[in-house]
Amino acid sequence: MNLRAVWAIYRVEMARAFRTVLQSIISPVISTSLYFVVFGSAIGSRINEIDGIAYGAFIVPGLMMLSLLTQSISNASFAIYFPKFVGSIYELLSAPVSYLEIIIAYVGGAATKSIMLGLIILATAALFVPLRIEHPFWMIAFLVLTAVTFSLFGFIIGIWAKTFEQLQLVPLLIVTPLTFLGGSFYSIHMLPGIWKTVTLFNPVVYLISGFRWSFYGKADVSVGVSLGMTLVFLAICIAIVAWIFKTGYRLRN
Amino acid sequence: MPVCIKRQPAYIRSQFPAGLFSMSSIISISGVTKTYATGFKALKEINLDIERGEIFALLGPNGAGKTTLISIVCGIVNRSSGSVTVDGHDISRDYRAARSLIGLVPQELTIDAFETVWATVNYSRGLFGKPPNKDFVEKVLRDLSLWEKKDSKAITLSGGMKRRLMIAKALSHEPRVLFLDEPTAGVDVELRQDMWAMVRRLREDGVTIILTTHYIEEAEAMADRVGVINKGEIILVEGKAELMRKLGRKQMTLELRAPLAAVPDGLSHYSLELSADGSQLIYTYDNQSDRPGVASLIRDLETAGVQFRDLDTKNSSLEEIFVNLLRQEP
């Protein structure tokens, strides 16, 4: 194992986050605060409790997930796309580094950043609403699993993308809508008839439901199913990454 | 330069075990082909041995397959078939050992623009699994006149400085083989001279250097051996001196006292050329030719009554040899 290489890549990735602190950390904090001002205070004060949880507190896990998913994807996809775009990827490909090491370093870097961000959002939320975390272990477990899974997903997008437009396409057109429709701001029980079933095809529902359960002990779907689905996404991403590396797809043409 | 068994006559080579011959080459490329997904055959069947400690110049026109070949050896592009070993390590099975011996300076200036010089060179060293060594990295930066810029971001460097940085990155992990892909393209005279001084120093340290260049006079000045690649095939590999001797041609130009309208009949067997204004006679001959020599031409000129003011001879350059070689290709 070339641990020095893993560390070298990881450090560069983390350095980028701190170099672009405004974009990486401050801007999500500001946008989260805005969500709380709008949904939590302004509109939230007129919404009844959901499952016995004040609306402002109810949306915290969903908001964290929203940032976690989008940031994991954008961190990891950009991290691998950028060297491809400027051409500096030659160095990574010519280095004595295994695919596993590349993945650990890039996905590790992206996941670390989004987990840090998730925790910052949590701390910001604590300033606005009373929070409680009933299952801290599972909260961290869902946080880490989701960050890793979606960093892997972002890595796949970064390898696949040939243009900046494609890089933005999946997060913008698929992930953000799925997250908004995945129960970030409501319980799926509030949906009318058929939509309750349709929404079960949205994978993000399981992530948010499981995560919210770790906070308040209440879930839209059973927590075992949530965990199972998260692991299934993780397995799918690992399988795709393994295939990419086996074939050299868009890397070693 | 170590004694090279491969260059010895067959009767000497036959006295050594077969394995010994491959030991003298640091890179061994055999039967390598590359067909891209589009169906384009970039490399047809490449067999090439690079000898330990030599400077090898790979020449070829644009699109001949030079960069593809280098990229395959360095692990950037997958080959379609064939095998490559670096110091006995197969580049697929034993890629860690093979790649850690190689430093690559690609043609394009591709650096993470927002990193500092110091950070990016140390990153390269780490990527190749080497423990941090500030003294060594400092030496590399000083050798390349980059030390003053160590805290500058890559984006603020001039083109020449970026090129130096690319070289520093390639040397950061103390490679035994250095690939320089068009190292002096778009580089000013000072940097070019620095670069060649560096190449000579590296060679003295036993580093093998493989370079591609469009400036053939540089290959002529630096290389021990020359390989010519065209349309995905190696058409020639030869020691530079042998190549110049075998394929080099000489040209003698005679400045005539009085212009001629045509080459006199008595001199037709010399295949002389007359310049457009008739004031110069040009005689081109191979070094190994059995054609009549210069002395007899001068005698015959006198007999024919052709007088000349001055004469000038020159050897053909590697560039002319190169161009001729490519012209002969179907």
* Amount of helix of chain A: over 70%
> Uncertain spans of chain A, ≥5 residues at pLDDT below 50?
none
The fold-level CATH name of the largest domain in chain B is: Rossmann fold
Number of strands of chain A: 0
The coarse overall form of chain A would be globular
Structure description:
The complex is a heterodimer of chains A (253) and B (330). Chain A has helices spanning 3-19, 21-43, 55-86, 89-94, 99-128, 136-160, 164-180, 193-198, 203-216, 223-247. With 253 residues, chain A is mainly α. Chain A has one domain (3-247). Chain B is built from 12 helices and 14 strands. Chain B has helices at 10-13, 18-24, 66-74, 95-100, 117-127, 134-143, 159-171, 189-204, 216-222, 240-247, 294-303, 318-328, and strands at 25-35, 41-51, 55-59, 81-86, 89-90, 102-105, 177-181, 208-212, 225-230, 233-239, 249-256, 272-274, 280-286, 308-315. In chain B, the strands form 3 sheets. A 6-stranded mixed beta sheet of chain B has the order 6-7-8-3-9-10, with helices on both faces. A 4-stranded antiparallel beta sheet of chain B has the order 2-1-4-5. The longest helix of chain B has 16 residues, at 189-204. The chains are: A mainly alpha (253), B alpha/beta (330). Chains A and B meet through helix 1, helix 3 and helix 4 of A and helix 4 and helix 5 of B.
